[in-house]
Amino acid sequence: MSDLSFTENLTSSDITIEGTVGKVVAEDAKMSMRNVNVFYADKQAIKNVSLDLARNQVTALIGPSGCGKSTFLRCLNRMNDTIPICRVEGELLLEEQDIYAKNLDPVLLRARVGMVFQKPNPFPKSIYDNVAYGPKIHGLATNKAELDEIVISSLQKAGLFNEVKDRLDSPGTGLSGGQQQRLCIARTIAVSPEVILMDEPASALDPIATAVIEELIDELKEKYTIAIVTHSMQQAARVSQTTAYFHMGQLVEMGKTEQIFTNPVHTLTENYITGRFG
Amino acid sequence: MTSSTLIFVILFLALFSYWYGMHRSIKVAGGVTKVKQLVSLPRQFGLLTALWCGIPALIVLLLWTVFEATVIESLLVAKLPQNIQEMTPSQLGLYLNDIKIMAQQNLGEVTETSEQIKHFAALEFQQLNLNAAWLKSAIIFLVCLSCVMFIVSRFRLDYRARAATEKITLKVLMACSGIAVLTTLGIVLSVLFESINFFSEVSPVEFLFGTEWSPQTALRADQVASSGAFGAVPLFVGTLLITFIAMLMAVPIGLMTAIYLSQYASQRLRTVAKPMLEILAGIPTVVYGFFAALTVAPFVRDVGESLGLNVASESALAAGIVMGVMIIPFVSSLSDDAINAVPKTLKEGSLGMGATMSETIRHVLLPAALPGIVGAILLAVSRAIGETMIVVMAAGMAANLTVNPLESVTTVTVQIVTLLTGDQEFDSAKTLAAFALGLMLFVTTLALNVVALKVVRKYREQYD
């Protein structure tokens, strides 16, 4: 590691990326992306990426900083629409339906494909209102009792209900970091999405809170399809079934998690997971 | 030499002593090649010498100018005959004024005996002034010279000229900030004391709760009418009415402008529209004033008449509308900042759950930015209450106690203007009333600003 030219070799263009190594197609795909290119103005952030998210599985997207994994994740529920200079090309399907189709409302898409962010971002409202926010705007509950039911079951699914049941009226920002992140997960599942995208959900949390979140992700995959971006390879190994390794905007290798972490095919993947760079 | 010439002389001397100090320090070091042996740089020695030359001399000059007139007068009085020295202060003042006027004119021969004393005094006065001018110049030169000699005599290899310079700079900075603080304090105290004078003539209860405002007092005992009534309630009501109309105009428009510019507008539009709005804030209020008086007020009256309403040609509504327009940039610019200060993650969190842009703004962004927006509105209110030119020109002078926006009302600031324009007796209740109104205005806007700043600060702590 002390020899800088050595690390430079590992990341330099000496090692070519020719298409993706491994299996990108899933038998039972919930979402399926083909030849996706993303541009920020003139700069290409994602180059020709194709991959499937398998139904009721956790797919981990790993790679060094700036490799495009978060950009790719944000394409899946059209969060990149909020950035005016961002342009997405390619075929992105949710249950065989093109999510970039002209007649598709991104607002409805985001109700089906929810997102949990890197930094816990509870709204400046009470715990109850944080969770009830989504169901209210989507009209999922016709009366107070139904809304209560949704809020409580979402908090239960997120493993937070027992900790906050006595103070549902206190502000969500008053919770600890880990609790806030679980509140955000509860908020996301309250609108019953089909897919949950998680952008480094545990990077701002301490190890214990991280362990709780990881356990929760494992439980959630019974009901939801999950894609998670993470910087921690141990986390990817613990929670995911499939792992995709991104490098410089390209998908280098994808496959079963145990295979990627024990027997990577591509040299770049091997260098990354053995911790030689990144 | 006059004081203004002396200032230039002092500056020139300081420049010279800069050069002198530099050379002295090089000499102390033992030549240009050995300058490195000095703890400070030669130019720092030079600057120190210049400061020692200039600052004490300027202080002496300032003190001299302040006390010169009083000292010369007392010297003059001491030379006058006994019977004149025993006059009352006001008579003596008039007498001395005569002498001063005489001294400025050409002093010819005087024959009248009563004038002879004055003539003598005027000559004496001229002589005193001349002597004072010479003495002043001499003292200033002496101060400059001795200060420079003193500091130069202390130059050694290890003399820390830079530290000494910075100490002086620090004191100068402190003195400057002291001037700002003392001026504020002085204004507040003078307003306060004059108000106390006013309240010894008019009871505070009448002032605060009386409903009749008619500040014309009789100048002579035999004058008709004009006993004066100092009930400020109509003024407060007028001020609040106009402020209310202005806020009714400015808050919705300003807030929606802020929402549009911060959330929906394209980058290109924003770069054009924001400076345009700030130009609106830069228009002098007197321009708004005649716009209100000549365009908006007649327009409001015409519209009112066509609807069958009786509108005064100087209505609270017209003044309020124009004031509202003036305040829009305040509200929009500060609210824009408040909305932009809400973390982007909150907005994304809401959008990511399938909320539309307007739902996100209503349920997430505005509640989170609310303290900042409230602060913006309170600052705008205090601005509206203190606004003068627009209401002077557009709202009228009649102190009607009414909440009907179509009638003419008057405000606290307008009355202060009318009370103090023209020839005034400084000790009449009419003039003093302006100070009492000023005090009320000051207290109100101060309270509003304090509350606004508190709210804004609390908001900042939440996200930083």
How many helices of chain A in DSSP terms? 11
Give the CATH topology of the largest domain in chain B: MetI-like fold
The biggest chain-chain interface is:
A-B, 29 and 20 residues
Whole-number count of domains of chain B: 2
CATH topology-level name of the domain at 26-121 and 197-273 in chain A: Rossmann fold
Rg result of chain B: 32 Å
Tell me roughly what share of residues is in helical segments of chain B: over 70%
Distance between the termini of chain A: 12 Å
In one word, what is the shape of chain A? globular
Strand order of the largest sheet of chain B: 1-2
Biggest β-sheet of chain B, characterized?
Answer: 2 strands, antiparallel
**Mean model confidence by pLDDT of chain B:** 86
Contiguous low-pLDDT stretches of chain A (5 residues minimum) are 1-5
User: How would you write the strand order of the largest sheet of chain A?
Assistant: 1-11-10-4-9-8-7
Overall shape of chain B: flat
CATH homologous superfamily placement of the domain at 26-121 and 197-273 in chain A: P-loop containing nucleotide triphosphate hydrolases
Major sheet details of chain A = 7 strands, mixed
- Unreliable spans of chain B are none
Estimate what percentage of residues of chain B fall within beta strands: under 5%
Task: Supply database-style keywords.
heterodimer; A: 278 residues; alpha/beta; Rossmann fold; seven-stranded mixed β-sheet; four-stranded antiparallel β-sheet; 11 helices; 36% helix; globular; disordered N terminus; B: 464 residues; mainly alpha; MetI-like fold; 2 domains; two-stranded antiparallel ribbon; 16 helices; 77% helix
Précis, in short:
Chain A is of the alpha/beta class.
Structural commentary:
The complex is a heterodimer of chains A (278) and B (464). Chain A is of the alpha/beta class and 278 residues long. Chain A has a domain at 26-121 and 197-273: P-loop containing nucleotide triphosphate hydrolases (Rossmann fold, 3-Layer(aba) Sandwich). Chain A contains eleven helices and eleven strands. A seven-stranded mixed β-sheet of chain A has the order 1-11-10-4-9-8-7, with helices on both faces. Chain A has a four-stranded antiparallel β-sheet with strand order 3-2-5-6, with helices on one face. In chain A, helix 4 crosses helix 5, helix 5 crosses helix 7 (177-189) and helix 7 (177-189) packs parallel to helix 8. Mean pLDDT of chain A is 87; it is low at 1-5. Chain B has 464 residues and is mainly α. Chain B folds into two domains: 3-159, no CATH class; 229-463, MetI-like (MetI-like fold), CATH 1.10.3720.10. Helices cover 77% and strands 1% of the residues of chain B. Chain B contains 16 helices and two strands. Chain B has helices at 3-29, 42-79, 82-85, 89-104, 113-153, 161-201, 204-209, 233-264, 267-282, 285-306, 316-341, 344-352, 357-386, 389-394, 412-420, 429-463, and strands at residues 213-214, 229-230. Chain B has a two-stranded antiparallel ribbon with strand order 1-2. The longest helix of chain B has 41 residues, at 113-153. Chain B is flat. The two termini of chain B are 59 Å apart. The model of chain B has no long low-confidence stretch (mean pLDDT 86). Chains A and B meet through helix 3, helix 4 and helix 7 of A and helix 12 and helix 13 of B.
